[in-house]
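Hey, sorry to bother you again with one of my protein questions. There's a protein on my desk that I can't quite get my head around. No rush at all, and the record is pasted right below.
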Amino acid sequence: MKPSLPVLPAPLIEDAVRAALKEDLGRAGDITTMATIPAGAKAQAAIVARRPGTLAGLDLARAAFRSMSADVHFDAGKSDGDALDAGDMVARISGPAAAVLSAERVALNYLGHLSGIATATRALADAIAHTSAHVTCTRKTTPGLRAFEKYAVRCGGGSNHRFGLDDAILIKDNHIAVAGGVAAAIAGARAFAGHTVKIEVEVDNLDQLREALEAGPDIVMLDNMLPDLLRAAVAINQGRAVLEASGTVTLDTITAIAETGVNYISSGWITHSAPVLDLGLDIDIASPAG
């Protein structure tokens, strides 16, 4: 059974799509379509996967077409999180040709980018499915697109790390340097945080891990540790804190990392560098009204 996905708030989608369309339409609108498409022309089209992958972003694509005209019909043949084969029909669109053509690029930009993230996440998640570890994302996201990119991670079978600086306390190496050490930083965080706020600390070596565990954080991030060191960290931890491995996570390395017994593996690559999934819009029929 496919896990349920979060629902993206409609105002968030509408604001993002409206901004993207305003950027694309510019000061004069789609002058190519206005110059070449007869008034009243109708179109039927299909969004088709050119390559295999995992789908994400349907609501944004739908909103792009519907924002150009309420008369556009968007019928999805797939759902976010579905696996796609090359040639699969993702959605059928019909309605005013001008609206379909003017919304095409914005719709495909969102679909391709988010499906690329879901596809990259799915590859990592599948590689460690035999372990108890989970793939999670980071804050290395495109400005303005964080909620959507993190949604795409969920579509690919990953989990979400914090959404912003106000979600949880994450003490990193620079915080530790200024605070005067791991224990001092955790103590300050514990005194500041409310009872619902999780505290995570980043450590670079086993001595820092031991110091951190004495101070009692909720989560310890094991930064750039090779598998042998990660296994040692798991043994030292003895289940006291949730362990998150980070750094140099790729499809080639993630299985060995997961098999050490860590709980989470965070990857910035799945949001900041995942290749776009190739999807295209193919016009089936275009004809003048009447």
